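Supplementary material to the annual report.
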Amino acid sequence: MILNLLTNLSYYIPEIVSIVTMCALLFLEASYKASEKSRTMVFVASLIGLVVVLFSLISNMSLEPVSLFASAVVVDKFSTLTKILMTLGTLGVVYLSYKSKDIYTGLKSEFLIMAMGVLVGGMLLSSANNLLTVYLGIETLSILSYVMSSFKRHESSSTEAGMKYALYGGISAGIMLFGMSHIYGVLGTIQFSEMVPLLKELTGANLAVMLISFVLFFVGVGYKIACFPFHMWSPDVYQGSPLPVTTFFALVPKFAGLAVLVRISFVFFSNEGALQIGWIGLIQVVAALTMTVGNVTAIGQDSLKRLLAFSSIGHVGMMLLGVVAVSESTTRIILFYSIAYLFMTLVVFYVVSTISDKYGTDSHSVIKGLIYRHPLMAIVMSIALFSLAGLPPFSGFVAKFNMLSAVIESKYYALAFVAAINSVISLYYYMRIIKMMIVEQPETNEKIETFNFINQALITVYAIPVLFLGIFWEKIMLISDGAKIFIVP
Amino acid sequence: MIPYIAYLGISAFLFIIGLAIMMSRKNIVAILLGIEFILNAAALNFVTYSKYSAHNLDGHIFALFIIVIAAAEAAVGLAIVIRYFQLKETVHIDEASELRN
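Predicted assembly:
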């Protein structure tokens, strides 16, 4: 038994490395002196930790699906790919937080410690194999996120963001837990693999209880990915948090939430029956409303952060389309969408962060005539925005196209229609930013000089996948080949 | 022996009280209290089902985890609320409207 657990640990190296890095950062913080050298050291340590995590994840890619720790977690290709995406997102955000001025200046390594913790929570969530692990993952993710969003301790807006996040989070976690308790009551187990055969035999009252319980369960996951009825916290938190934290929230918790939603949909709802009809119906309605609310509300926003919050809500709606069309190929499509979304988001937030650091505000007006002040930044931002809007030949187009074709293949024509309309709506507000950057004259002709060579190189590196994934997407799809969900006992 | 349904009734009652508190009260500390009600309702459910219908220990373990995590969540939530009170001198939910377009 003990030997078995020890061998399991060898599959779990990425998580262990993350936790070790987190603890190492705590110790480094103890020896922290207020100097540039000390600050750089902390960042380098966390970058090294993350790179090690990334490599150990890549070496895990070739493993057969296996369940660990008495079936608490499962390591398969899908979960490993999601973890890679989350680690890449964290890497990008860690560098962003190093250069950003938006974050509280007296901050030492708190951001990095919390970010590693959220990463561990996300990893747990994406490989969850029983209800307890789902709950633990969501809470690890959430509780650290509350702290992260209230990092600017001296500004009431940031504290307010953290407070709203904590309240919404607590409520939805509680409701989710109540749903889980009834799922356990009806089925008598919390293991996914033991639940699947029992679900088929449900009838009558038990089935009704199950349907309601899964709706309650969806509240918790839906809040984590910010889909329609539970999206209210998202714009407030995005606006109030420091920009690196906002970027982080746009990436890691979303991927983790989507991963667990995909896993649950595949494990429990791939058999035809009343449960599947109920669940797919729920996700369909939620996806359509999420897209529409996100994109329509984004139009009137002045704050760039708020606009990006609503645009990310719109994208989550798009990704939910993949959950609706439950089949093996859609897992790959969702993963591809996530990859495209990762790089687009990193580029956009990087630019917005630089600009709002310089002007001290993130209102629309600061971006006017950006092309006269920093051409590279404006071009890269335009590429990312075109891609977010889903125009060919960028990666966003391929991602959206694949998603729509999967939905049409599964004959959800109304949903595909809503998604297409939403693409048009989103085009409007993305184009408005591009018009502001390129056509309109700047208020001042002062050049942005703080954007040094490393930043320029980095932003170009982020933009390359946005451009090339749109052309060579089949190769990337091959990597995620076989990334289906396994039910491992 | 107390019947099975009594426990479920109490837990449903706690859940509804929690929801009602969160919807009607404007004090942020009271809302945190409402969250605790809901978490405890879920924990009670788990223990009941564990004893009466599932006959395994999964529910007991789940309840222990709920207690620990609820404590962590309350600690973080209260810390943030205290900070907010220091900055704004109020814990009224309607006053927290700075982030609105």
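Residues 156-187 of chain A form the longest helix (32 residues).
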